Every structure is written in C-alpha cells, then in structure tokens.
Amino acid sequence: MNQRYRWPTIGVHWLTVLLIIAAYVLATILEDMTLSPQKLKLYSWHKWVGITVLFLLPLRLLFRFLDPLDHRAGLTALEVKASAAVHGVIYLLLIAVPMFGWLHSSAAGFPVVWLGVLPLPDLVGKDKALAEVFKELHEGSVNLLIALVVLHAAAALYHHHIRRDGVLARMVPWLSKK
After folding, report:
1. What Rg value do the Cα atoms of the chain yield, rounded?
2. What is the mean pLDDT of residues 144-173?
3. CATH (residue range 7-170)
C-alpha cells in the first residue's frame, strides 16, 4: 500500500496553504493602512491570491480523488468521520471565502482582475448594503477557515507526535514514519 500522497497532491496542498497564509497576511496588513496606491496594489494581490485558491480547488480535488492512498488507513472510525467532516468544510470554505470576497468586491464596485491580466465579471451590481453583507460573510468564513486549518494542523501534529502513526508523513515527504 502506498504510504504517501503523490507529489501533485502534496504540491497543491502546500501551495494552497501558502496562498491562504499570504491572503491572511495581506488582509491583516490592509486593515491598518490608509487609502493609498500601495493599499490598492495590496488589495489586488489579496484578490489574486484568493481567486488562485478558488481556481486551484478543482485541481486539488482531482489529485486527491485520483491519489491511491487510503487516507483512512490507521484511523479510528471516529477519526475517519471527524477527518471527513473537517476536510469537507475546509473544501466548502475554499470555495466560499474567495466567492464572498469576489461578491464583496463586485457589490463595492471594485473589479477583480486576476493577476492584473484577466478581468473577472462582476457577480452582482454595485450595492453598498450588499457589499457590507458580503464583507461580513467573507470575514466570518475566513475566521472559520483559519480555525479549521489550525484544527487540521493540530490533528496532524497529534498523529505525528502522540500517535506516531505516520499520518503527517503522508503529506510531509521528508518525515519518516516512526
């Protein structure tokens, strides 16, 4: 039995993690900035990162589906259910977070131009009240995503350091199963 995910699965997983961190860091920086050309540039980067996460999701799901690793191996029935629930909600949030951000931008009247090259359509018309709703949904879903990613990482560390069952090594190739 294969003990690790394949490289495409691992690569897209860690790329997604890095992009989520980048988007979060950019958002944190933007909170305290006054309106300036630099702030608008960073907002564009934040949008690029979010849309990239959204666009990567189908590829991520395809690689996960095609990967022969039985991700349930060695887990208890409760762990299998908990893992499936957390992964399922994370995947939904990888759609919801960027979509709420895109909807917020559309309702606020700010275009989303992916990587500064590909203009994406406005999903809704300009509407200040609606923009506030989408902003709150975006921020709330980000907070939930971050909480679940932390829970996911904590579970992986638990498996590595407490259970010592090789679960973390499946996604971190340089770790050995002990």
Report:
1. 18
2. 93
3. 1.20.950
Exposed, middle or buried: residue 147 (CB in 10 Å: 0-12, 13-18, 19+)? exposed
pTM assigned to the model: 0.92
Rounded Cα distance, 98 and 141, in Å: 9
Distance CA 141, CA 23 (A): 13
Task: Tell me the pLDDT tens digit for each residue of 142-152.
Answer: 999 999 999 99
Cα(50)–Cα(94) distance, rounded to whole angstroms? 9
Give the start-to-end residue ranges of the domains of the chain: 7-170
CA angle 104, 106, 110 (to 5 degrees): 100
Q: How far apart are CA 44 and CA 168, in angstroms?
A: 34
